[in-house]
From TrEMBL:
<feature type="domain" description="ABC transporter">
    <location>
        <begin position="49"/>
        <end position="276"/>
    </location>
</feature>
<protein>
    <submittedName>
        <fullName>NitT/TauT family transport system ATP-binding protein</fullName>
    </submittedName>
</protein>
<keyword id="KW-0067">ATP-binding</keyword>
<dbReference type="InterPro" id="IPR003439">
    <property type="entry name" value="ABC_transporter-like_ATP-bd"/>
</dbReference>
<dbReference type="InterPro" id="IPR027417">
    <property type="entry name" value="P-loop_NTPase"/>
</dbReference>
<dbReference type="InterPro" id="IPR050166">
    <property type="entry name" value="ABC_transporter_ATP-bind"/>
</dbReference>
<dbReference type="GO" id="GO:0005524">
    <property type="term" value="F:ATP binding"/>
</dbReference>
<dbReference type="Pfam" id="PF00005">
    <property type="entry name" value="ABC_tran"/>
</dbReference>
<keyword id="KW-0547">Nucleotide-binding</keyword>
<dbReference type="InterPro" id="IPR003593">
    <property type="entry name" value="AAA+_ATPase"/>
</dbReference>
<keyword id="KW-0813">Transport</keyword>
<comment type="similarity">
    <text>Belongs to the ABC transporter superfamily.</text>
</comment>
<feature type="region of interest" description="Disordered">
    <location>
        <begin position="1"/>
        <end position="44"/>
    </location>
</feature>
Length: 296
């Protein structure tokens, strides 16, 4: 484990390093009277995703060598680290999009193939089918699963009832704004009721205003569904705002530099990023990042 430089034990209590699991999430998130979500009472697994001895090289370029990590269920985990350290590769490997050279990945003891996994790509323009209306993009995974039309409609209705979606779902993707298209992508990912949702820089192609609103939207979805989410971000503010835990990675061959617990109440609006504790946590993550990104 490579955990260093505890800045302030009081501020950063509960931080864990590689291989550790931490106290975990709610069976469903609870809303306090003031609208903030309270931490979970019980019910979710402390070790849900188990990554053991994972190795991946591209030619001579070793990205992961004997990489081990465990992550809890029902948490939002952001992945942050130096350029090219393997953030996308990590989620591609553990979501089954990319084969690995060695190691194993289990979800509560199940293989990747036995687990309901969804993925939201950075480039929604390429991810959505342009010839399908938005509603049919959302429907598509259910069709692939072989559900009858009636069952598809019921599932979509159930999903949409959970969220306030101000989008004309009869519109084609090109008729929607970037944020609306990415919302459709996220709904499509959620329609199968995934156990884990991977998001690779989902908002990086959006303008800042849309990004802020999508950060709020994703939090609503997370608080409503309690789905375990792993989010790759290039933006440290976003990585801290949208996480119960920030997974900080080193340069290649990539290890866990540190896992920082973000013990702030949900939801976290734009004002949350000015909160002194938020600023402390972000500044701690930045120090770890700078240490790991420094040329050696
Ligand atoms: N399909 C591939 N074929 C060859 N090399 C690859 C492939 N995918 C990733 N790599 C290499 O693996 C390393 C890690 O790439 P990856 O995209 O996972 O990093 P990242 O941390 O997500 O990068 P960035 O910060 O630029 O988004 C890089 O050196 C990249 O060139």
């Amino acid at each position: 484990m490579n955990v260093t430089a505890m800045l302030n034990a009081r501020k950063h209590t509960g931080r864990t390093g590689e291989g550790d699991a931490t106290p975990v999430a709610p069976s469903s998130r609870q809303q306090a009277a003031d609208g903030t979500a309270t931490p979970p009472a019980s019910g979710k697994r402390q070790t849900f995703i188990t990554i053991e001895g994972l190795s991946k090289s591209f030619g001579r370029d070793v990205v992961y060598r004997d990489f081990t990590l465990s992550l809890p269920e029902g948490k939002m985990i952001s992945v942050f680290g130096p350029n090219g350290c393997g953030k996308s590769t990590l989620i591609n490997l553990i979501s089954g999009l990319m084969p690995f050279d060695a190691g194993r990945v289990l979800y509560d003891g199940k293989t990747i193939a036995q687990t309901r996994i969804s993925y939201v790509f950075q480039n929604y323009r390429e991810a959505l089918f342009p010839w399908f209306r938005s509603i049919d993009n959302i429907r598509y995974p259910l069709k692939i699963m072989g559900l009858k039309r009636r069952e598809q409609d019921a599932r979509i209705e159930e999903l949409l009832a959970d969220f306030e979606i101000n989008i004309d779902l009869n519109a084609y993707p090109y008729q929607l704004s970037g944020g609306q298209q990415q919302t459709v992508s996220i709904l499509r990912a959620l329609v199968t009721d995934p156990e884990v949702l991977f998001l690779d820089e989902p908002f990086s192609a959006l303008d800042y205003e849309m990004t802020l609103s999508m950060r709020e939207q994703l939090q609503k979805i997370f608080l409503k569904t309690g789905t375990t989410m792993l989010l790759v971000s290039h933006d440290l503010e976003e990585a801290v705002q949208l996480a119960d835990k920030v997974l900080l990675l080193t340069r290649r061959p990539t290890r866990v530099a540190e896992i920082v617990d973000i013990d702030l109440a949900w939801p976290r609006g734009t004002e949350a990023v000015a909160d002194p504790h938020f600023v402390d946590l972000k500044s701690h993550c930045l120090k770890v990042f700078q240490r790991e990104a420094a040329v050696r």
